[in-house]
Q: What sequence folds into this?
């Protein structure tokens, strides 16, 4: 279980970004983390993987635990070694490396003996990458790059995989592929924390969902319940009740996406 | 013809030494985006350590070389930890300025240690000559070429093939992503400085094997690696080798043929030649012969 209790994160010593967030990723599950831009989703991931200091952020309160052991004081290499893998937003392949090198660097903390077996596993999972293993990663298509970075994170055999917007900027068909891959990875025994703007995709595969708004968890429900929730349907899934009043008739300032207040 | 061959051999010898120093620049630049202007001072310090080991401690020459390389690797790593680590996240320009300061600090230190003495390396070649393509050339030039190019090849293979080398290259490309893969980025900086320190020491020994020995002011000979990295490309080891040898040969040819053919240029014009080539390179090909332009999808 990867859990977060009352976490507060401050950037540049003054900007309070997370205001006491609690969430948990049970072993073997897919958990979705939804929220608008600037809600703090990426900050949650950075806090878990120890990448906050790169962005001059600090955890000021609260704890993050992995199976009960605190990990919020660990630096990035230590969290990777502890079994947490992160796929960052915007793909971030090593553009000048070949696909093969990109995957190998993911195994930096892993035992030497596991590298070849893991390479095989990932090339089976992503046959497209196997075709392009000697090509420079920077020239791959967006979907292939996304597969490449997911594969890179899997090379360290993480028990928990944190995915930051894997569907960003991809065509709907590719998004489906990525979604199926996440399910496949989960079935192989990796728990997934999925940060998404594409709530439709995220809630379709997640068992539990959190909705984040300006640094607070405003909804914490099973994914099935969230899928049926009126507000989530309207603001995240883009679905409205049949026959609902047109937007012209509603008071705009009240329709802002705000859950508390 | 014989003069030409002798000149070229001498040029290749000194040029491969320039290449060795340039590779030191390239390693640090690739890992940390910082042009390390302190490198020439490391070169002189390395030569000093070698002389110290040979003449004060009586070590045989090969052992002394290894010893001075180890000492400079340590000093390089320490310098990084003390002076450059706090600059992580600051603009590369500020960090480069720190290295300029380091250059003067280390240079003054080296000048103090060496004093006004001429130091020699105790190398086995001295002024002996060897038959080569119908003429006689200095053994030391051949030795310089072989040793420098071998050292560079070892570094190249290490960066390209080994796990640590891969992590260093990853750090060079994107520090945050490298961190997220579990690479200890700070340690990679340390390793790259240690490697450049060791290469600097080796280059120092190579410069010190020159007939007249070496003085502290020879730090400015080492500064010729600057035109080399500009011509070869700041981030290319291959470029360093090609440009180093090119500049070394150009310099040697000027030294041989300019007096008598172009006297109006004045004495010691060969010293200017590398910088002249640098200016031209900057105008024609600012990223150098082999410097990479960014990989980008279109």
A:
């Amino acid at each position: 279980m990867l859990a977060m209790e009352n976490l507060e994160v401050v950037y540049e010593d003054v900007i309070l970004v997370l205001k006491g967030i609690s969430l948990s990723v049970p072993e073997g599950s897919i958990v979705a983390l939804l929220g608008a831009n600037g809600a703090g989703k990426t900050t949650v991931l950075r806090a878990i993987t120890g990448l906050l200091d790169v962005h001059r952020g600090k955890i000021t309160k609260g704890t993050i635990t992995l199976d009960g052991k605190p990990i919020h004081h660990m630096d990035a290499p230590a969290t990777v070694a502890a079994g947490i893998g992160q796929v960052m937003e915007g793909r971030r392949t090593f553009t000048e490396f070949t696909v093969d090198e990109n995957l190998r660097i993911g195994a930096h903390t892993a035992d030497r003996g596991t590298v070849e077996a893991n390479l095989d596993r990932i090339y089976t999972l992503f046959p497209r990458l196997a075709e392009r293993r000697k090509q420079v990663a920077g020239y791959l298509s967006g979907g292939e790059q996304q597969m490449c970075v997911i594969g890179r994170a899997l090379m360290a055999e993480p028990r928990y995989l944190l995915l930051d917007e894997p569907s960003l900027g991809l065509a709907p068909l590719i998004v489906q592929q990525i979604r199926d891959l996440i399910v496949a990875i989960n079935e192989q025994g990796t728990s997934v924390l999925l940060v998404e703007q594409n709530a439709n995709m995220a809630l379709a595969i997640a068992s539990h969902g959190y909705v984040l708004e300006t640094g607070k968890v405003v909804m914490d429900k099973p994914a099935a319940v969230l899928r049926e929730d009126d507000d989530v349907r309207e603001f995240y899934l883009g679905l409205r009740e049949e026959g609902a009043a047109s937007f012209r008739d509603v008071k705009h300032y009240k329709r802002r996406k705000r859950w508390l207040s | 013809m014989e003069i030409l061959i002798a000149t070229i051999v001498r040029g290749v010898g000194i040029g491969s030494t320039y290449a060795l120093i340039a590779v030191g620049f390239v390693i640090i630049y690739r890992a940390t985006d910082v042009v390390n202007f302190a490198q020439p001072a490391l070169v002189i310090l390395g030569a000093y350590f070698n002389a110290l080991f040979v003449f004060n401690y009586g070590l045989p020459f090969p052992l002394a070389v290894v010893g001075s390389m180890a000492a400079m690797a340590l000093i390089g790593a320490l310098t990084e930890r003390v002076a450059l680590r706090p600059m992580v996240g600051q603009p590369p320009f500020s960090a480069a300025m720190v290295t300029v300061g380091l250059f003067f600090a280390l240079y003054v230190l080296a000048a103090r240690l060496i004093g006004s003495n001429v130091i020699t390396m105790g190398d086995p070649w001295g002024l002996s000559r060897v038959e080569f393509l119908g003429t006689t050339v200095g053994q030391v030039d051949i030795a310089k070429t072989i040793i420098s190019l071998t050292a560079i090849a070892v570094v190249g293979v290490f960066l390209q093939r080994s796990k640590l080398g891969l992590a260093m290259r990853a750090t060079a490309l994107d520090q945050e992503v490298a961190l997220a893969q579990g690479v200890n980025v700070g340690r990679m900086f340390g390793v790259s400085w240690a490697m450049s320190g060791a290469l600097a020491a080796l280059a120092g020994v190579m410069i010190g094997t020159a007939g007249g020995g070496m003085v502290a002011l020879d730090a400015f000979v080492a500064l010729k690696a600057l035109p080399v990295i500009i011509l070869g490309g700041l981030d290319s080891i291959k470029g360093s080798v090609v440009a180093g040898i090119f500049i070394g040969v150009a310099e040697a040819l000027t030294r041989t043929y300019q007096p008598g053919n172009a006297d109006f240029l004045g004495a010691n014009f060969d010293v200017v030649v590398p910088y002249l080539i640098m200016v031209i390179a900057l105008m024609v090909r600012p990223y150098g012969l082999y410097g990479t332009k960014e990989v980008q999808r279109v």
About this structure: The mean pLDDT of chain B is 88. Chain B has one domain: 2-284.
